[in-house]
Specification:
There is one protein chain. With 152 residues, the protein is mainly α. It has helices at 6-16, 21-28, 32-39, 42-65, 67-79, 84-98, 107-114, 133-143; strands spanning 116-120, 126-131. A hairpin with a 5-residue loop joins strand 1 (116-120) and strand 2 (126-131). Helix 4 (42-65) crosses helix 7.
């Protein structure tokens, strides 16, 4: 992953697999406050989201390859009382993986949201959102990101 330090890449991998911030920090030999600081940076947040997205895709591909076996196992589980708890637990885990939210993968999208503000009419009703282009361009510049590049 271009633009990341080795410890950041290691942290992203650990965090995306569910390792806590505390354990991740211990594992790579830094203070956990550093990880919180990294999450304030749009490229790091996007990198984390990219790791999550890839893990989700890998998991979904693995689940698809197991679908025939899963149907057979489901049939067996439904016939025996002692398999019901295991089956319910497995379903719950798969639901959690399936519905894990993956955020923005492009740091520009994260910066854009941070630089967007609601617009209200005279009655106080929100009518639109307004991107502060100057703030957006400055934030991208600070991060070394081209605000209008099509691909990172």
């Amino acid at each position: 992953m271009e633009g990341f330090k080795p410890k950041q890449i290691k942290a992203l991998g650990l965090l995306a697999t569910g390792t806590s911030i505390t354990d991740t920090a211990k594992g790579i030999g830094i203070n956990q406050s550093v990880i919180y600081d990294w999450f304030e940076l749009a490229p790091f947040e996007a990198g984390y989201n990219l790791f999550l997205d890839q893990m989700k895709r890998d998991t979904e591909a693995g689940l698809l390859s197991l679908s025939k076996k899963a149907v057979k196992a489901l049939e067996k589980c439904l016939n025996f009382d002692n398999h019901q708890i295991a089956f319910k637990a497995a379903l719950r885990v798969m639901e959690k993986v399936q519905y894990k939210r993956v955020g923005d993968l492009d740091p520009r999208d994260i910066v854009s949201k941070d630089c967007t503000y609601p617009v209200y009419d005279q009655s106080g009703y929100k009518t639109d959102d307004d991107l502060d282009l100057e703030q957006y361009e400055e934030a991208c510049k600070e991060l070394g990101i081209d605000p209008y590049q099509d691909d990172l």
